[in-house]
Write the structure tokens for this entry.
Amino acid sequence: MCGIVGYIGDGNVYDILIKGLHRLEYRGYDSAGIALVNPEGKLNVYKAMGKVSNLESFCRSKDLDAKAGIAHTRWATHGEPSDSNAHPHFSEDGNLALVHNGTIENYKVLKDALSQHGCHFHSETDTEVLVQLIEYIRVTNNCTLVDAVREALKQVVGAYAIAVIEKNNPDRIIAARKSSPLVIGIGENETFLASDATPFVEYTKDCVYLKDEELAVIERGEPLKILNLENQESQIDVTTLELSISQLEKGGYPHFMLKEIFEQPNTLRDCIRGRVVDGGKRFVLNGVLDNIEKFINAKRIVIVACGTSWHAGLLGKYLLQDMCRIPVEVEYASEFRYSNPVLDDRDIVIAISQSGETADTLAAIQIARRQGAFVYGISNVVGSSIPRETNSGTYIHVGPEIGVASTKAFTGQVMVLTMLAASIAQAKKTVPEEQLEELGRHILQIPETVKEVLKLNDTIERLSLIYTYARNFLYLGRGYSYPVALEGALKLKEISYIHAEGYPAAEMKHGPIALIDEEMPSVIIAPNDHLYEKIVSNVQQVKARGGSIIAIVTEGDKLIRNIADHVLEVPKMPECLTPIITSIPLQLLSYYIAINKGKDVDMPRNLAKSVTVE
Ligand code: G6P
């Protein structure tokens, strides 16, 4: 949800900022803008609607000489995508420029107060209010810019990651954060700031994650200074990044999404490494084992997440109930936080988030912790906010996911949930050892199994041509395949803009069956599990209404092959592992349908990968 980047140093400021914006474009691409302070103390601000490439074209004939700068890629919240609403925003006297990720909730009150003092506003954004407020305080109190930023932030209710530069000072950037991410990269004679580390990983591996309500003073030639809003200096903890630049490139694939789908054998291997040991006999998730009594004695588990992570969470419910015999509820974080939840210290809340920054999931965690629940996080981005706010947790270790539609993160989340359930079951002895060992052996084989599944690529590419112009799709599954149906439908919606509904196959007869005709294809996830016979009937019900069927089945399936129009076969697996392999053909199907329709699969309209607003 908006990406910000800043730079002071001897490098080419414009080039570094633009490249940084491209890396952050997954956070939003409604508009982009850049503010450059040139050596003579002139502040040049350029903005363009749409993607960063539009900004680059716009800047081609402009003065790009600079000693420092800040830049922004926007996902619109307050005010439509337009030039005037694009960041950076100015103070009215043109002295300050500011970029912001987050939402200033009390902006209306602040705006009215500033208007009464004669301020005029040129955009509909909450951000412009903040920059005007800072400058108003600086001028009326005759104080330093650092003090003015501190004072302004004390008046602000909401979330922010900001960077501010001043016309006459090309040697300083001030940055601050609360509830929106901000990380500072420390290089030799140069300093970076960004919403995540991807814009500067090729220049430095040393970084500092700013904490809530901290303010960074970045000055040329001076060591980094971090203050809290009360002006007390904080200690600086430098972290070394594990990220590598090759992880941020397409590596020969036409899109990040396809690269990430094909990376899954490796990402799952990384996810499993060191966690299933002794040939599959033991499950070692340290975050669980260190707190095993809590898990054994848990009276209930509540899973909170959003989007694709919520679908992984729903699979977590099936896994944990099946294997650990603990009651599980799965909640959308955005609903949970306002549902007046009832929790206590025998409840465990599992928060799942690829980015580790989703605002609703973070808020849900805070509520759960306040009520005494033990909070366990499952995230991908190391050092992000969610792992820092939880009591314990596990990283999925699938590497940066850049395609907006989540693929490898989903399978990584499901894999972690499977290992989590298995390690609790092992401690609680709710599943016989031989069964767990068999599961462990299959988990160790999953990377190879996924490689087999990916061989369906060409078949799916051909199949996609038949269905490219369908206007609606139904995705059906039962048991472990129901969350897969939901995720398959979401993938199609997100990137091809075709309406698709995921449904429990047996519920179809209570409504959606009325939609079925020859123009409504159904994708039915029907592996050979304990509900197989049941779903065969559901497949027949669809066929009887003239609907065409694409079925995902287990190798050697005979029954459904005779009914469905197309079948895609996946290898036989223990039931609880089938979602990992049945979801992959669905990822490929949505990818190719979107490509056939000429859609931008990596940056679908209106979406952003990291949702740091409510
Ligand atoms: C956005 C993304 C989805 C993602 C969801 C939750 O909507 O586009 O792909 O599933 O946020 O994100 P999280 O980072 O919390 O998993």
About this structure: The domain at 251-450 is CATH 3.40.50.10490 (Rossmann fold). DSSP finds 19 helices and 26 strands in the chain.
